[in-house]
Amino acid sequence: MDRQTLFECLVAWINTFDLNTKCENVDDLRDGLVIAKCLNSIDPSYFTNDWISSIKIDTNDNWRLKLVNLKIISKKIIDYYSEILNNPISDFEISNLNLIETNNEVMNIDAINHLLQLVLGCAVNCERKNDFIQIIMEMSENTQHVIKIAIQDLMSKDKNMNIVKNSNSMSFDDDVNYQLKKSMNEINRLNELKDDIEQKCKCLDKQVSELQEEKMAMLSEIEKLKDKLQREDSFRNDPTNDHNMNLKLQQSIKTLQEDLYRLDSEKEKFKLLFEEAKNEKEMLMNRCIKYEQLAKEHQALKDEIDVLKHTSEKVEKLESSIETYKIKLEEMGDLKRQLRALEETNSENLGKVFQLEDEVKKVNPLKSQIEMYKKQIQELHEQILQGQMNQKKLEYEYKSVEEKYDLVLKEKERIQNEFDQIKQDYEQLNINAQVMEQSKIMDISHDQMMDGLFSSVELVNIPSEIKEKIIRLYHENKLLKNKQNDLIDERLILIQSQYEDEKQRTNDLQAKLSNIQKEKIELDCQLNDLRKKETDLLNQKQNTSQNDQLLKSKDDQINDLKSKLNQIQSQFDTEVRKSEGTIKKFEDIVKNLNAEKDEIKDQKDKEIQTKEKEINDLNEKYRVYLEKAKIVIKSLDPRNSNGNTEVQYLKNQLVEKEKQIKQLMKENERIRNSREQEEQLIASAWYKLGANLNRRTTDERISAVGNSFLSQQRSLASTSMNSNRRITGTQNVNQN
């Protein structure tokens, strides 16, 4: 019986049902909706509307969804035969469903025919079988005959399958394994033949292309020879030579034509061989498809055997699990330990909650403290600037340079002595820092003792209220220590900035001392000039009253300047002592804070090292999983790797996970760098701000001051010179 006629008759029988659409091709039946509606009309009590709703409608060109629908229908039909008709047909061509979605028309029609035969069997054996048989009798005689043959074929196959099951139940596994091995060997042999044929085809294609190239070369040579003949005919007039040349050329043309005929014949032979190889390839491909079908059928049978084995293993596991549950009922001590662990975690969570609340409360007082520190810094700057202005005003007024020079030398020696004392104090502070570190170690040991007390078993019997109070006090103690450390860090930053400001001020004072020394030298020169002038005046006229008055006025000015210089020197000494005392205090505080800062840095470095170790452990685990995945992928058949979408999906997931890990590592490094840069920028901005404020205040005070000390001395010198000139002029007039 032809498969096409069987398909047409079965489609005509399906069109007798009340359907909204008519079926004409295989494409109309691939999605399974028409078959499901037919089954619903055959037995709506079993093939319900809820079952039809489970079938997917919008499949479009998705062959996977269509295949899922067909599998659902086939499973329901098999259940119908076994549950209602009491005629199981689980082995009737179920594996052919995959062939419905292939592009081969022969395979499609065979698979659809088998499925429609099952639907026909449901209709003929159901409760309404008389109605359906009456519908078949009303059809044409040819279709009736074909449908009867299909029903007989279905019934005969069912009987044969039952006989085979009863007779060969013992040797079934051996036959299946043997057939599977045989089919796999044939598939491998056919694949090898396929590869050999493809190589032969490639060689033939190369030979054909080479022969075509030779043919083209020969034709080009013939054309060249013809051109030469024409040229020689035009230039030569001797008939004998022409005749000989023509004979030679004709012979060469004949030989070339023979070569062309020979090459054409070889070309045709190769074409025939190529077509034969192509046909062999198609035959082998068809054989491969058949063997693959057989392998799938055998694999389905093997899967059923594995399912039965799996169920038996499950029964054994359930029995063992029952015994384990009996043992677990006796092991209640572990549950008590778990309860204790949960109580400890609860206490830790309470501590974390308290820490978070205290961190939230820290923000407001820190802001107010920062504002207070800023105001104090501004007041200190103003006080220092006022002292500097007073110092400048007093510096402009002193006169006795020799006494001042001696005092400055003495101050220099005194500063050197104080510097030596500061070094000694620095060494003592280092010793004190070591003592502080030892005390901190004792505090840490105390904290560890407290942690040991909280983790001890003796506190289990204490009431929960007392336990919560102890935990609360313990965490409050920790928070107070953390607050103290934070305040120390803030004070360290402020004191470092103030320490650097004081260093800058000391440098400014040293620069001012150097300027004062220069001014002293200039004033020495001016005093020498004045003394020379005084001696000249005394030698010239000792009795003049005007000179006496000038000398008296100069002496009075010198005495006033000496007194002012002494006052300035005393004020300068007091300010220097104050600044040195503040510097010593700042140095002590800075040293203590630096020691605490180093301890905090060490703790942070340890935490970073632990995190890096965790990251390395995770990377090692990930590499182990990658190697396992690669081994699994290699164990798969590489020829079927292109069709295995699940393996490709796993590979894509592995690649995405590698990218995510790299991105996380980059983000971790970027966050570290950004934190370090932020800390550096904050420190540099703080120092720059202090330096800029000092410069502004000094510039404003200097601009506010009018004339300097040197300008005043120069004006006095100019007035004295003018007065001397007037005196000499009057003396000359009197002499004349």
UniProtKB/TrEMBL annotation:
Its main location: cytoplasm. It is found in: Cytoplasm, Cytoskeleton. GO terms for cellular component: centrosome; cytoplasm; microtubule. Residues 180-232, 267-439, 499-681 form a coiled coil. The keyword Magnesium does not apply. The keyword Thylakoid does not apply. One of its GO terms (biological process) is cytoskeleton-dependent intracellular transport. InterPro entries: CH_dom (IPR001715), CH_dom_sf (IPR036872), Hook_C (IPR008636), HOOK_N (IPR043936). GO terms for molecular function: dynein light intermediate chain binding; microtubule binding. PANTHER family: HOOK PROTEINS (PTHR18947), PROTEIN HOOK (PTHR18947:SF39). This is Calponin-homology (CH) domain-containing protein.
